[in-house]
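Weekly structure sync - notes
Attendees: PM, LS, DV (DV joined late)
Agenda: review two folding runs queued last week.

Item 1: First target. Sequence and structure tokens pasted below for the record.
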Amino acid sequence: MTPNVQSFFDDDTNTISYVVSDPATGACAIIDPVLNYDAAAARTATISADRVIDHVRREGLNCEWVLETHVHADHLSAAPYVQGKLGGKLAIGDHITITQSVFGEIFNAGPDLPRDGSQFDQLFHDGDSFPLGKMTARALHTPGHTPACMTYVIGDAAFVGDTMFMPDYGTARADFPGGDARILYRSIRKIFTLPGEARLFMCHDYLPEGRSEHRWETTVAEQKAANIHIHDGVSEDEFVTMREARDAQLGMPKLILPSIQVNIRAGYMPPAEDNGTVYLKLPVNIMGEPQTAPDGTRPGTQ
């Protein structure tokens, strides 16, 4: 039950996409593919996604799933593009409906945005299993960063989305609409019930001070022993106090506004207007003022 895992790092967004395959059959799942987006020009490109697609074709793999761990706030999803090239079912957690409802209101989306998750082929409930070739994968609901966050357990590998980062960087923020630090703590402790040797794959790596190379693979045992925010011995109340104080100092991710309104649509753009052009909205003064750290600098976004 050891899948092959190939990672793809997107420099612009610090996002890692994955191709996870069953060695026995060549069936694969693609997790969190990235659509390149130039915010200044509002132009998209498929450079990152094409790297993933080329790998799948070169290795002769058969794409059965395109999986989203959650509605990302830091990059636009390339899931529809990847699915159009390689096939497979597009899936996310069933709590996507909550995220769609919340952000549908924020963006004043009309009836062109169904809030029932119907943009996806499959909505996973907590504990659902699904096949990947001859392997059986599981979908675990691990909210807190967002209501719809899922961890996908495939053999000895778990893809944890934004619940946590490498041990020297900590955990994800929990202050987006629908986020909750207390729930995030419980979700991470749920992941920690996996075997100690289970491989954990992060969705992002932001280089912490003192580290010069990006990393995105660790284990349950390493996280429990060394995660700077939530190692064994950190109580729920201690974590919530730390997380809420840190979140209060964070600015918004630079691509949150374009990302969310695309990703709640499963990576599809809003419908074109009567002139044939697609427009993304920028709701003003909705997401809060950027915060400043005590030393006057702008802290990171996680």
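Item 2: Second target, run right after the first with the same settings.
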Amino acid sequence: MRAQAKQVRHEEEEESAFVSMTDMTVGFLFIMMILLAFFASQMGDPDAVSKRDYDAVVDQRNEWEAVAETRAERIAELEALLVQLHLERAELQDVVADLREHLASKDVRIAELERQLAELRQVDPLEAYLAQVAQARRQVLTRLRDAIRADFPDLQVELSEESDALRFQGEGLFASGRSSLTRDKVDIVSRLAQRLNEVLPCFTLGMASTFDVDCNPGFVMIEAVQIEGHTDNVGTELVNRTLSTSRANSTFFAMTDAAAGVMQHQNLKGQPVLSVAAYGPDRPVTTNDTPEGRSTNRRIDLRFIMVTPQDTDGIAVIREALQAVEGRP
């Protein structure tokens, strides 16, 4: 019994020693682990990062990869667009080349037209002078017409369509079928002669000439002032022609009686500018089928015929002739 108890005690002692040894070993191992952990922390990779930083970097990398993919797609789109634009540019360059060629041809045409226009704009001295002649004649006739109208408001007097004659129409000066002027008509013709005698000196030669550049800046000269008699077509040709001649002569003599100096106005040939012509029914200005038309055709025309030179030498002759009498007392 005692031996058994001793045996149990011995076993308990051995077990206690084993436990103590085990505890000491575990403690030693724990200390070693702490030391290893310490040394491991001291000997770690300096480039190593924490998992949090690593995950943040991975997330950022993923974001940049997504951005890179998006940009790659955009670059691909832009490259495709660039190719398309290059193709369109090449097409437009062809169009531009065609347009430039077309423009060049138009420039050539424009240059030609401008050259022709410049030639047309060059003033022909003769044409310019003839234009001045026509203008001066119209001004003289308008001046005479307005003066006669002011003196005799009821008188029917007009400029011809060509603005080369004063036209006394209808029964303005003569009764139908008559060639003699009544007293009141003589007053009209006399006044017309006086007005004409005021105008002619600046456009004619002779002793009565009073040429001055202010009144005749174009150096225009009158060739003739014709008193023209006209009739309608009623009656025989002999009667009408005689009637038109008698009317023209009656007007002529009434004018020369009222202003004797009117015959002193001469043309370039030294001839009196006042003259007479009769045309009977040959030159109607409207129809003879109506009373109004026949009344219009029965008329006296005071036609101004101007000197119209054929070239610039003729202009010089006119100018020299007028200048010769300028300022003469």
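Discussion on item 2: The chain has a mean pLDDT of 87.
Action: LS to circulate a short write-up before next sync.
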